[in-house]
Design a protein that fits this description.
Elements (H helix, E strand, L loop, with lengths): L1 E6 L2 E4 L4 E9 L7 E6 L6 E6 L6 E3 L7 E6 L4 E6 L8 E7 L2 E2 L3 E6 L1
Parallel strand pairs: 2-11
Antiparallel strand pairs: 1-3, 3-8, 4-5, 4-9, 5-6, 7-8, 9-10, 9-11
């Protein structure tokens, strides 16, 4: 079992920044990458970013490339999502996923 807890969401003006955190506990040793997804009201959940567990390779959705940065601190079992130059359309609940496990999500609201 792996537990994932997201935090760091909130209300921010367009152009602002937020940093989300995803803390893993339980059986955290895993070869699975850690992913961030998001789901806006009335829309399907979509991939945002991912980071490999070992080499730290990263990938991003085109919609966030150049604005968001995913990183990790293995000693703290934490993956971060630094979100800069936020846009109204980034408003969503952001979820952390590792393997088959999901966190409960954290709300990000960007005011235009």
């Amino acid at each position: 079992q792996v537990q994932l807890v997201e935090s760091g969401g909130g209300l921010v003006q367009a152009g602002g920044s937020l940093r989300l955190s995803c803390v893993a506990s339980g059986r955290t040793f895993s070869m699975s990458p850690t992913n961030w997804f998001r789901q806006a009201p009335g829309k399907e959940r979509e991939f945002v970013a991912a980071i490999d567990s070992f080499r730290g390779d990263t990938s991003y959705a085109d919609s966030v490339k150049g604005r968001f940065t995913i990183s990790r601190d293995n000693a703290k079992n934490t993956v971060y999502l630094q979100m800069d130059s936020l846009k109204f359309e980034d408003t969503a609940v952001y979820y952390c996923k590792r393997g088959t496990y999901w966190g409960q999500g954290t709300q990000v609201t960007v005011s235009s």
